[in-house]
Amino acid sequence: DEFRARDGDGWSLTADGVLTIEDNAGWQDYLKDGASEVINKLVIGKKLTDFYLFDDNTDEFAGSGIECPQFQPKQIEVEDGNPTFVMEGGLLIDTISKTVTLSEMSVQNVVIPDGIQEIGALTFFNREIHSIEFPSTLKKIGAFAFSDCKKLGTLIFPSTLNWIDDYAFSGCNSVSEIQFSNNLLFIGEAAFDYCS
């Protein structure tokens, strides 16, 4: 479908659904525009180094006071020269914080790379994931990270995992088995809500 082409300070969305975020100010400005849509392609500009959907420092979703962003990009591209982000297996990875921050809509059998310590908020929201393999380095799963992944089956958490945030797996109604870590310290509110 045709998109409503528009732009702002440091970002633009074309009529064919390509959203380019040039820098950190562009991301913040785009959040004020709504940031809750399915897009054909997300382009992470080479100056964008602070892309997140949830701010742990303020305990609020990005762009405080606006609609919670539920990004659903079909494709993600990182411009050459970006010092922070890389794409690997359909996953947008922040190499500085060692966090998976977003995924492409097409991901199904996900392998989180070794070295990743966190899966950010809303990273896999409403994806058609069938399986997920967590690395032995994972420490935290963010709020709504896998919310509404209705085809997700078995969850085997690594021994390093100690934090599962609010609503992390809510709506994952096909989960049939969960193996928890002995080192788990926190399971957030409604983390497994509507998991039959």
Characterization of the model:
- By secondary structure, the chain is mostly beta strands.
- The chain is 5% helix and 34% strand.
- It is built from 1 helix and 18 strands.
- The chain has one helix spanning 24-32; strands at residues 6-8, 11-13, 18-23, 38-47, 54-55, 60-61, 72-78, 85-88, 91-94, 99-103, 109-111, 118-119, 131-133, 140-141, 154-156, 163-164, 177-179, 186-187.
- It has a 7-stranded mixed beta sheet with strand order 8-9-10-12-14-16-18, with no helix packed on it.
- The protein is globular, with a radius of gyration of 16 Å.
- The protein starts with 5 loop residues before the first strand and ends in a 9-residue tail after the last strand.
